[in-house]
Amino acid sequence: MTVANITVSETPLVLYTLRRADDALILGHRLSEWCGHAPMLEEDMALANMGLDLLGQARELYAYAAKVEGRGNDEDKFAYLRDVRQYRNLLLLEQPNGDFARTMVRQFFYATFADLYWRAMMRSSDATLAAIAAKSEKESAYHVRHSSEWIVRLGDGTEESHRRVQSAIDELWAFTGEMFSVDDSERGLIDAGIGIDPAPLRSQWLKTITGVVGEATLALPKNDWMQQGGRSGRHSEHLGHLLSELQSMPRTFPGATW
Amino acid sequence: MYTQALNSSEGEDRNVEDAARAAQFQARIDADERIEPNDWMPAAYRKTLTRQISQHAHSEIVGMLPEGNWITRAPSLRRKAALLAKVQDECGHGLYLYAAAETLGTSREELVDLMLAGKAKYSSIFNYPTLTWADIGTIGWLVDGAAIMNQIPLCRCSYGPYARAMIRVCKEESFHQRQGFEIMLMLCRGTDEQKAMAQDALNRWWWPVLMMFGPPDQASQHSDTSTKWKIKRFSNDELRQKFVDATVPQAQFLGLSIPDPGMKQNEAGNWEYSAIDWEEFKQVLSGNGPCNRDRLAARRKAHDDGAWVREAAMAYAEKRRQRATLQAAE
Question: Which of A118, B43, B157, B211 shows the smallest number of beta carbons within 10 Å?
């Protein structure tokens, strides 16, 4: 027996909230995959901690999306009963963990963006989004510190770590453009003072990234081609596998409460 | 490293025959005083504790694997967050215990190497697989429940750092145990399929959990001296009985049957359980449990795959130190 996907009434505010919730859930899930397998116990702790922060953010955002939508969906239905084409997260965040360098570069690119984004969202005219942003910003500030310290350590560590972290930057760079793009659905919310325009955040983001990458004796790629698609459900092949694992229980035991 | 600040253990070997010191040491134990890292202690006391604390630490770390097996498949976001936090707690216990073991003069690296080489033991229970979500509930309810029975008395252990570590560990374990019981309660109040899942998990885990308390008292190697040194305050069989007596009413409350048809309550109120298959215990301890190879392989893989990260961190720290020295010289 299978369980049907839910339908979601994607009004601009529901869609906007779900996009941020999916970002947090998918990256949180990826980080949770490290638990028990990290390079040192201290990193098992840190990665689980950041994964928990992100899961917490996802749950608050899903709860708010459910409330705004008002059609009986809830955090678990959003997480467990939508398929790949209904997920709205950034492509960057569904990329597999790879080695520790790849995980740290993904974290560094996203957390640096998220920290600026949450800080801007604290001034949203939507009180719930502003409150979630205020809590999330404290967490992302730590994620930036943790990941940027690792970028420097790995870049300026050994030849092998330098090679690995540079390769991770080269591989993931093309996924960073999507963080700053805006579609019509978000434009209206931005004009209304509810949503945040990410475009003006890019120069500060790039400044932080360039500074850390430089200190780490690494370089950013020259290639400016950027992949898009996650926000409208056109994902990489990786997301389907992640979801088949994440959703296996509610899909196998329809209607059960855990 | 913390251990460098501590007295080395070399002196003790020369002094092991120092009857006066040994008597003084025992007098302190008898007076319920705590032994601290810099205090004189018999070499055998140091060795026993290093073995016990490090085995305990290894158990926490290997124990992350069977439960970690379900983090990515937890059936709700609330359960996922709770399980991730729980496994993170186990990691924290491991770190805390390695630090306690280091106060006795052996580094975490050396202790971990012994475990990875298969030369150090960890709790046999973690060599069983987690096959369904109900196993996560059962581990919390029974495995953590058994761990608490074992560890509460260790909060009064004669060695200060271990006793203090146990106080914190026990607080978290008792939270985990309640969490596990709550998972079982949800299953037992759920669909027929969920109830069957809960019963199946109890059937598979019951006997291995009873084995967690160690061999029967007549066969235990370490008990006599450990009792004299107040490392151990209750015998394996005493703790096992306490655990069974506490657990039977909980199983009854859940509506689950303990897979021991011969079990009966005696006049004193204790639940008498049937004979434990110690051959299975021996096999699991000697490496033939269902998951021994997988568990060690997973720990070795994490260690090997992470080697370049640890090397990079060391290399970077060394570069920074050299740069600071150069700057200071300028």
Answer: B43
